[in-house]
Amino acid sequence: MRMTVAEGARRRILIVGGGTAGWLTAAYLAKTLGTGLSGGTDITLIESTDIGIIGVGEGTFPTIRSTLAAIGIDEARFLRESSATFKQGVHFVDWAEAPAPDAAPTQALGAVPGHSHYFHPFNFPHQVKGPELLPYWLLGAAGDLPFAEAVTLQKAVADACRGPKRAIDPPYHAPLNYAYHFDANRLAVLLRTVAVELGVHHLVGTVDGVVLDGSGAVARLDTREHGGLTADLYIDCTGFRAQIIGQALKVPFKPWGDVLFNDRAVALQVPYDRPDAPIPSYTVATAHEAGWTWDIGLNDRRGTGYVYSSRHTDDARAEEVLRRYIGPMAAGRDVRLLKFESGCRNRHWVGNCVAVGLSGGFFEPLESTGIMLIEVAAHMIAQFFPWGPSGLDSAQTAAAMAATARTYNALMGARYDRIVDFLKLHYCLTRRTDSAYWRDNADPATVPDSLRDRLALWAHRPPGRFDFVADHETFLPASYQYVLYGMGFKTDLEPARALYRRMEEARHEFQGLRTVTPQALSSLPSHRDLVEEVYRNG
Ligand code: FAD
C-alpha cells in the first residue's frame, strides 16, 4: 500500500532513525517550526527496532544547554532522566609528554607526578575591565602558572570536584560555563517522549527501499510495516548505515583517516568503587600508545573507552590497554568494540534529503563534536527550511531546495574542515616519540595545510578573532589557546613586548583570580551533591 506521511498543505518532514540525531532533530524542529493544526509542519520519525542505536556519545559541548532549553526540556528533568552530570571541560593527561617510565597508570584527578597534563575549560579567559590576558601570560606576567590555571578558576573548581553552580535553579545558567555527561540510551528515550509530546508522529519500522525520481531526488521510502512513505524533506539519521545519503544517493564520503588516525573504540561501563565516590566534572582524556581513553562520570556509573588507530595497534592489545587503565573494576566485564571511519559526506544536503548525525560524518569522540554537529544541523535546517511561497510549481520548489542545499553544504563543509584542524591540533604538537602513533601524528605531512599555516603565524602572535570565521567555527580562539598553550606551544612575543603596556594591570588581574579562587571553591557544592539535588527534589 502506498500512503503519504500526512496530507494537506503543511510541509511534511520524514526523519529516518531514532538515535540522538533523529530524536534531537525531531524535537527541535517540532518546537521551532510547529506541528499539527497550529503549526506549519507534519513531522514523522521512523526507527527500526531491529537495528538499534549506537548508544555511545556521553560527552557534550556547552551549546547543548541552549538547544535543550529551546526544545523546552526542564534542566532538572533532563539531568534526572538521562543520568546526567555536569561537564566543565576536558582534562588531558600524557598528551604532551609520554609518562615517566616508572609512572604507574593513573586515574587520579589534577596533577600526578610522572604524568603531563593540561585542562581545556569551557570558561573563556577572564576579562572584565583589564586587558586581554593571553599576551601578558606569554610575556610572563603570571609566572609559571599554566595558561588555563592563570586565566580562569574553573580548573581549580573542577579539580576539587565542585559543581559549576550553587543549585540547579536558575536552570541552564551558572557562573561557570558547562555542558553535560549523560547516558546516551536514556537521553534518546527522553528526547523521544518530548518529541512525541510536541506532535511528532512515531513509527516503528525498517526502511528497506529508497525510490528516486527522474531528477535523482527521493520520491518515496518503502517499508514493510507501513508501505511507501513520502515527504517534502527527508532527514537521514540512520547512523553509519547512511541508508539514504550513502546507499541510495551515493554521495561520496570524504575520508580524513590520513590526518585523524583513530578508527576504532573499545568501550566499557564500570561502577564507582563506592556509591558516594566524588564525580569528576570533566572528561578525563588520557593518551596511550595508539590512542586515548575517555573516562566520564555519570551519577551512578563511569563510562570509559579507548579510541585507537587500527593501523597502530590491534583490538586485543586495545582491550588490554583499557583494562589496565581501569584496573580491578574492569574484571569480569565485557568490552564493546566499535568501528568507524573518520570523515564526512562531501555534501550533506542533496535534493530533498539532508543527512544529520553519523550518516553525515564522524571524526572521533575527542572534544564531543558528534552531538554538537547534530545541534548545528537542527538549527540550520529550522532556519533554512524551504517553505517557499504557496503555489510554487515543482521546478521552482526544486530550485529553492537546491539553493538551500548549496548554502547549507558550504557552511557545514567548512565547519567539518575546521573541526579537523582543531582535533589534529591536540595530536600534532605532541613531544611524544615513544610509539609510531605519536611520531606519525607529529609528522608535518599528516597536518592539513590550513593548520600548518596557522601554527606558523601563531609562533609570533597569539590566535585572535580574525583567524576565525565565526559561522564556520565550532571552537573559538579560547579553545585553540587552551590546547596550544596546554600542549606547550611557544609564541614568541618578545619582539612585540613594547606593544603591551598594561603589564601591571594584567598582574593585578592574575593575582585577583588567585585570590578569589578559595572563596569560589567554598561557595560551590560538591558535584555529587549538586547532581543529587534533582533526585531529592524530583
Ligand atoms: P545511531 O545512534 O546509530 O542511530 C541510528 C538510528 O537509525 C537507529 O534508531 C536505527 O534504528 C535507525 N535506522 C538505521 N537504519 C534504518 C532503516 N533502514 N530503517 C529505519 N531505521 C533505521 N558524540 C558526542 O557528541 N560525544 C561523545 O562523547 C561521543 N562519543 C562517541 C564515541 C564513539 C566510540 C562513537 C562511535 C561515537 C561517539 N559520539 C560522540 C558520536 C555520537 O554517538 C553520535 O553522534 C550520536 O549518538 C548520534 O548517532 P546517530 O543518531 O546518528 O546514529
UniProtKB/TrEMBL annotation:
Binding annotation for 7-chloro-L-tryptophan: K87
PANTHER family: FAD-BINDING PROTEIN (PTHR43747), FLAVIN-DEPENDENT TRYPTOPHAN HALOGENASE (PTHR43747:SF4)
Regions that span the bilayer: none
Record-given protein name: Tryptophan halogenase
Species in which this protein is naturally found: Nitrospirillum amazonense
Coiled-coil spans in chain: none
Residues at the catalytic site: K87
GO MF term set: monooxygenase activity; nucleotide binding
Family annotation (InterPro entries): FAD/NAD-bd_sf, Flavin-dep_Halogenase_NPB, Flavin_halogenase, Trp_halogen
Entry binding sites for FAD: G18, G19, T20, A21, V207, L358, I371
Pfam families, sorted: Trp_halogenase
Highest rank taxon of the organism: Bacteria
This protein's UniProt keywords: FAD, Flavoprotein, Nucleotide-binding
Residues the entry annotates as binding L-tryptophan: E367
